Amino acid sequence: MTYAYHPGAGFRRFDNAAASADQLAQAFRGLPEGSGPGHALAAFKRAAAYLAIPPSVVQLVDVLFAWTKPEDWRSASTPVVWPRNDKLARKLGLKVRQVQNLLDRAIALRLISHKDSPNGHRGGVRAPDGTIKWAYGIVLSPIGTRLEEFKAIAARGAREDDEIDALKRRLTAARRRTASLAQAALDGMVVGTGAEEELALAQSAARQMRNVRDISLLTGCVEQIEQRGRDLEGKVAAFLLEREALNHSAESNDIAPMGVNECIHSTTTTQPQTAKAVTSSRLAEKGSGNYDVRSAVPQSEVEEDLEKHGVDPDFIESVTPELCGSLGLGRRGWGELVQLAEQLADQNHIHRHAWHEACRIMGQRGAAASVIATVRKYQAGEVERPGAYLRGMSGRAAKGELNLGRTFHGLKDLRQAGAMRTMQAGGDPRSVGDIARRAMSQFVLSGRSS
């Protein structure tokens, strides 16, 4: 009968990591003058975070240092400790097998070595003066040998921490600045600056860079967000300055002598116009951007709510580009939006009576915004009967319970959340309607230039 012979059975595994740890242990010539085991342990702990050493291994080394004495770290000595694995297990609150795994991990990290007795047991004896007479067990010399290495790593890591903290403070400041500019653009109804997209990008960058320690990557990200913030600030400032100049010019032109025939007097009426008055041929003659529905009739409560929340044609188009894509080809105004709402009502089976009732109660701008919100939810599968839904909105508006401005800001938040999920998945955050609208706009502009 043939028996298999395993010469390594029952012995400690010896590999490249164990050989490297033994070399470090043999190279130990004592700690520098004025240094003790506490200095070595402190240097190791400070460097451990930058060496990706697991906390469980750090705790193991800390417990092992409890059995060593300053005499063990002199030039003619070797720091050896000999606690049994079951005792270490009680100290660490682990199982014996887990302690064995931690010891193997510490050897692989070149932190400890082993000095085995002939029978494989740990043990040792100290002289009356505290020096080790003989000992077999766990050797801590590699940590002493690597003392200067640990100090250098800890110092370099601290410098990197300071630099990373400074970069993250800059990133936070840039994100907050972008948010402030986006709010200013919203309050001032500034369009065409891409403020919302810049804010979403800055917020995403702040989240993605939260745990990054690559200084070059973090620096590039911070500089890009800061530059984009400066560009956005320039756009918003230029738009506000241009608007201020136009307002000043308009105020100057409003001053006219008495009795001039061209002076137009505004009139009011208690009879609201019908939707057909908005979509008549006279509307087209006035021009897509010059007509203002607000000048036709007094504002309803719903229209006042829209104005209070900054919901204008540009805002509605940015939230529902799939429905309002055609508005981007020319100058935008409430007249075009009302006409579009009538078309959407016809296309989505909303009865004309429901549309006229919405115009009577909410005003033409409020009715148009309500139809667009209704159709947006209908196409998203949130509404089954758009006509009934619009009548319900009219009923709430009649009671003063309709908050249409909040509805559109909710649609805006949903759109931004969807765009962020798309960006995280590596896709284009813009909707199909938005992409098509921009492509068509570029096509029209190129045709005009040619």
TrEMBL record:
Family annotation (Pfam families): RP-C, RP-C_C
InterPro entries for the chain: RepABC_RepC, RepC_C, RepC_N
Span of domain Plasmid replication protein C C-terminal: 331-411
Region (Disordered): 267-304
Superkingdom assignment: Bacteria
Domain Plasmid replication protein C N-terminal: residue ranges: 12-185
Biased segments, Polar residues type: 267-282
Name of protein: Replication protein C
Organism: Sphingomonas glacialis
